[in-house]
């Protein structure tokens, strides 16, 4: 395993390991995050998009048709929202054509389908550890089929400090670790003042050195960019310690419980249905995806209430629209995903259930 700073870095390293280069084509699902595309461009490849079914699984017929166009070197297949797809048919298709398969487990760090662990069918598999652990940055690259040759280096003391402090500040913002928050209050205020000063100097051109934003990858701040400077950097010491100390069994059990509790709370809610009718055995969900009939009105209501949510796929890569994949466009428009994080307490979960249900009920009569 190689622990890197983001899932997109892991995608780039996987494609590079498969020999993807200028003139090659990488197939990517039409339902996607824009951050999945730049790693292929970093390798010099062209990206083409394949259709997905309404449950986000890959459309093998469309993939097979695109292989006839030639030059396809690799296919990226994603387990969306932590629900593993059956990738055995795609694996067989890749083997017949001599094409590399990158299993995208950014939403699916843990879990199995039919006894087959996620990540084991791809030539390489990638994960996004910061989606599952309380860390500021983190991704991973694994392979059960190939040796991992990527050599990684530390990113320096500034990065290590920023990764630790940002993770702690995020925990404090959510009301966690109150004793530690009190102890670090003064040092963190001093850090914030110094940071603001450094950013101000960078904007006015007085710093002359590395800008503050270069201390950490932009992927940690929700950008879609790919910065090649982070392709050979390992994840921070803080993140690696958290991964070592965390309990995967606890994470899986609590995420499944939280997912199922929210599903039960919304069973008879109007104007919606879960993307997946049931949570499969062995799946560890990233979020709870809900298809909503009046998505914009519901989103507006949820935002006013301060409800955390994700509209994955709502901003596709330019040119990817309903004419390319109707299912992808529909998912991007209608789907709202809600947290089922392992650290949600009973009060937070009850509040989330009530707010989502209230937003849905208040928007039943709102025109589409």
UniProtKB/TrEMBL annotation:
The keyword Transferase applies. Coiled coil: none annotated. It comes from the Bacteria. Pfam families: DegT_DnrJ_EryC1. GO terms for molecular function: transaminase activity. Residues 212-222 have a biased composition (Low complexity). Signal peptide: none annotated. The keyword ATP-binding does not apply. Gene3D superfamilies: Aspartate Aminotransferase, domain 1, Type I PLP-dependent aspartate aminotransferase-like (Major domain). Belongs to the DegT/DnrJ/EryC1 family. This is Aminotransferase class I/II-fold pyridoxal phosphate-dependent enzyme. It comes from Telluria mixta.
């Amino acid at each position: 395993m190689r622990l890197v700073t983001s899932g997109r870095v892991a995608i780039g390293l996987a494609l590079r390991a498969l020999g993807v280069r200028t003139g090659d084509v990488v197939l990517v699902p039409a339902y996607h995050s824009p951050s999945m595309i730049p790693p292929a461009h970093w390798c010099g490849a062209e990206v083409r998009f394949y259709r997905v079914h309404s449950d986000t699984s890959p459309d093998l017929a469309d993939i097979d048709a695109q292989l006839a166009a030639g030059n396809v070197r690799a296919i990226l297949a994603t387990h969306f929202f932590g629900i593993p797809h059956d990738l055995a048919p795609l694996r067989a298709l890749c083997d017949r054509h001599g094409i590399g398969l990158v299993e995208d487990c950014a939403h699916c760090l843990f879990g199995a389908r039919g006894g087959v662990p996620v990540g084991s069918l791809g030539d390489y598999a990638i994960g996004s550890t910061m989606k599952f652990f309380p860390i500021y940055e983190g991704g991973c690259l694994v392979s059960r089929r190939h040796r991992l040759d990527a050599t990684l280096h530390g990113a320096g003391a500034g990065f290590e400090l920023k990764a630790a402090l940002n993770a702690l500040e995020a925990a404090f913002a959510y009301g966690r670790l109150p004793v530690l928050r009190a102890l670090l209050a003064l040092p963190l205020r001093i850090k914030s003042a110094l940071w603001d000063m450094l950013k101000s100097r960078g904007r006015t051109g007085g710093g002359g050195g590395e800008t503050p934003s270069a201390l950490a990858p932009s992927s940690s701040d929700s950008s879609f960019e790919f910065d090649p400077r982070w392709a050979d950097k390992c994840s921070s010491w803080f993140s690696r310690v958290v991964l070592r100390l965390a309990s995967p069994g606890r994470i899986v059990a609590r995420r499944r419980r939280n997912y199922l509790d929210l599903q039960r709370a919304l069973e008879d809610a109007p104007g919606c249905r879960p993307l997946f009718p049931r949570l499969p055995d062995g799946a560890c969900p990233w979020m709870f995806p809900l298809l909503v009939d009046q998505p914009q009105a519901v989103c507006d209501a949820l935002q006013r209430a301060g409800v955390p949510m994700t509209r994955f796929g709502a901003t596709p890569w330019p040119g990817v629209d309903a004419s390319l994949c109707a299912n992808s466009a529909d998912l991007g428009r209608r789907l709202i995903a809600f947290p089922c994080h392992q650290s949600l307490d009973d009060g937070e979960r009850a509040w989330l259930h009530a707010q989502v249900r209230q937003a849905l009920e208040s928007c039943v009569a709102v025109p589409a």
